[in-house]
Automatic annotation (TrEMBL):
Coiled-coil segments: none
Source species of the chain: Leucobacter allii
Domain Ionotropic glutamate receptor C-terminal: 44-271
PANTHER family given in the database record: ARGININE-BINDING EXTRACELLULAR PROTEIN ARTP, MEMBRANE-BOUND LYTIC MUREIN TRANSGLYCOSYLASE F
Keywords: Signal
Protein name: ABC transporter substrate-binding protein
Signal peptide per UniProt: 1-31
Residue stretches making up the Solute-binding protein family 3/N-terminal domain: 44-272
The keyword Glycoprotein is annotated on this UniProt entry: no
Tree of life domain: Bacteria
Length: 278
């Protein structure tokens, strides 16, 4: 996904312009379930996520709890739209079904959808609520796993996948004393970490959680790396030409501008084992 970060940013800007046009033509407003919203259930906001939904995006596969970054963002957007918590209805969809053409059984869908031109032909996107960062993963019990700063990683042997943003960020931010080990894929990089060829790897943050929780027995997310390289932009998916798209974008924009999105990211991502390394 990192290879498309610049394209995603450009598409996100294009989507924002498209949404502005939509707002001008659809009339907007009346988001809280009034007639004409095209909602799945009038008076309710039906939000979909994956099954299962994983941390840090949804805690304990329980989006109704509002715990986890995307669950919390969803309820914050619902509030901006005028829906009480009890008027939010959760349903589950697969990732592929959500972005396929055709009718939907949800008003909004949130499960780390990155914006792309191809997908935008079949569904609407809100403005982005999160931009991925790069993160360092190490095997538990190693010196790299105990690192608390970028300086602590200088002498580590670090692996990255070829042609990714991860490679660029590792070079620029960590600037390790040992030559970066470059592999053909993230899976190859993970294998190198498992067999001890490298001390740590760099990948995007969603991938880092997956590597830690699904691929390693004792993996540790050492931390996130701040960089101007940016990453993939995650946005809500809505049915194509939804009457809610402009309102959802306005809600996301308001939460970004008042700092709510940053606060939720700090609470549910950084404080859940992915601190920002300095």
């Amino acid at each position: 996904m990192s290879r498309t970060s610049r394209l995603a940013a450009a598409v996100a800007a294009g989507a924002a312009a498209l949404l502005a046009l939509t707002a001008c033509t659809s009339g907007g407003g009346d988001a809280a379930g009034g007639e004409g919203t095209g909602a799945v259930t009038e008076g309710k906001l039906t939000i979909a996520t994956g099954e299962p939904a994983y941390a840090p995006w949804v805690q304990n596969d329980d989006p109704e709890s509002g715990e986890g970054f995307e669950a919390a963002v969803a309820y914050a957007v619902a509030e901006e739209l005028g829906f009480a918590d009890e008027d939010v209805v959760w349903v589950r969809t697969s990732f592929d079904a959500a972005i396929a053409p055709g009718p939907k059984d949800f008003d909004l869908n949130i499960q780390q959808f990155s914006v792309s031109e191809e997908r935008a032909q079949a569904v609407d996107f809100s403005s982005p609520y999160y931009e991925t960062t790069q993160a360092v993963v190490a095997a538990g019990g190693t010196a790299a796993a105990e690192a608390t700063s970028i300086a602590d990683l200088k002498d580590a042997v670090i692996g990255v996948a070829s042609g990714t943003t991860s490679l660029t960020v590792a070079e620029e931010v960590i600037d390790p004393t040992n030559e970066l080990q470059v592999f053909n894929s993230v899976d190859d990089t993970v294998a190198a970490l498992q067999n001890g060829t490298i001390d740590a790897l760099v990948t995007d943050l969603p991938g880092a959680f997956y590597v830690r929780d699904a691929q390693l027995d004792d993996g540790v997310i050492v931390g996130q790396l701040e960089s101007d390289e940016g990453g993939d932009a995650f946005a809500f998916v809505l049915p194509k030409d939804s009457a809610l798209t402009a309102d959802v974008t306005a809600a996301v924009d308001a939460l970004r501008e008042d700092g709510t999105l940053d606060e939720l990211a700090a609470e549910w991502i950084a404080d859940q084992g992915a601190p920002v390394l300095q």
